[in-house]
Design brief:
Number of strands: 7
Radius of gyration: 16 Å
Largest sheet: 7 strands, mixed
Order of helices and strands: HEEEEHEEEHHH
Structural class: alpha/beta
Strand content: 25-35%
Shape: globular
Number of domains: 1
Number of helices: 5
Helix content: 10-25%
């Protein structure tokens, strides 16, 4: 199971939760997904924090990933993401990524899967995807955190974005120099 494998390999970071859904063998995760691991920090094998992560990752999977939602700072990182995890993508996987440095939304095909890419400089992918799909709190009423991801996947199955289809190379070539806006203590 990819999510358990990711946990064992230290690829889950700042975990919000990793739980089994009410469907046997189907696991849900929210947190950050490591794209580039940190270096070994000492002789005991402790590692430094990851060099690069997919923020606000929302993942659902059994033997393969069925749902992939999150935010990346640079569109070029999509190559790192897909190269690292493509073998664990289900052919039916639903993928929606928020990207800081793209100018306009697009749909691209990678490894036979349509990725919906939406610009987002600040925000939480979970909240943004809920808005994108026009879901309400009542759609999740009484569900566990893990089962809420199943509801999200079910909604994404019928989601028909009206964003243009583009070659990934064109989207990467059109990257802007916009940076993520940060908030917090100064």
């Amino acid at each position: 199971m990819p999510l358990q494998q990711f946990k064992e390999e230290g690829l889950l970071f700042n975990t919000n939760f990793l739980d089994q859904t009410s469907t046997s063998g189907l696991y849900a995760y929210r947190g950050e997904l490591v794209l580039v691991e940190g270096e070994i920090a000492d002789e005991k094998g402790h590692t430094k924090p990851p060099v690069e992560v997919m923020r606000g990752a929302v993942l659902l999977g059994d033997e393969k990933l069925k749902l992939l939602v999150g935010s990346i700072d640079d569109i070029a990182s999509i190559n790192t993401l897909t190269e690292k995890y493509k073998d664990l993508f289900s052919p039916e996987m639903k993928a929606l990524l928020y990207v800081v440095n793209i100018e306009s939304p697009a749909q691209v095909e990678i490894e036979g899967i349509t990725f919906v890419l939406i610009p987002l400089v600040q925000g939480v992918p979970w909240n943004e995807v809920i808005d994108e799909l026009a879901l309400e709190k009542s759609d999740f009423k009484g569900q566990s955190s893990a089962d809420k991801l199943v509801t999200l996947l079910d909604e994404l199955k019928s989601y028909k974005p009206k964003y243009p289809t583009a070659p990934l190379a064109d989207v990467i070539a059109g990257a802007t120099d916009v940076k993520r806006e940060g908030w917090g203590a100064v």
